[in-house]
Write the structure tokens for this entry.
Amino acid sequence: MSDYKVLKSRTRSDYPYVLEYRTRWSDNDMYQHMNNSIYNFLYDSVINTYLIEHCGLKPAASAQYGMVVHSHNDYFDSVSFPACAELALRVNHIGNSSVTYEIALFEKGIESVKSVGEFIQVFVDRETGRPNIKGMDSVVRKGLERIYIKTSSRL
């Protein structure tokens, strides 16, 4: 099965963390569906919410922060205001200082996935902006391991 088909067949149960988001009128574009740029905004928000709530990240005070080095999204269907979106999060890979997230967007009450995105972050030292030779903070790593899903191949 191709990666696209695998992603399109995702269900909420494929993701250990879900965050609800109420769409706003301003999220829509002139075609009356959520603008593509909003998806990245939401993906970044669910990741940072998880990092703050479950990984001990304190954005203004942490010695390290996650810098996005890669992102992409596959769109399957649209969402528009006034829908309630459900952002589902999992980790597909954890490296020494990097993490690969997979984020799915569902519409509340609808089973099929609307989009699936990928963000890769590298945790860097606040002072240097470079990856720490010792890797990511152990508390962050432990929190990320809780939503890590081992896959046979990276998608």
Q: What stands out?
A: The longest strand covers residues 113-125. The CA atoms of residues 68 and 121 lie 4 Å apart. Residues 36-54 form the longest helix (19 residues).
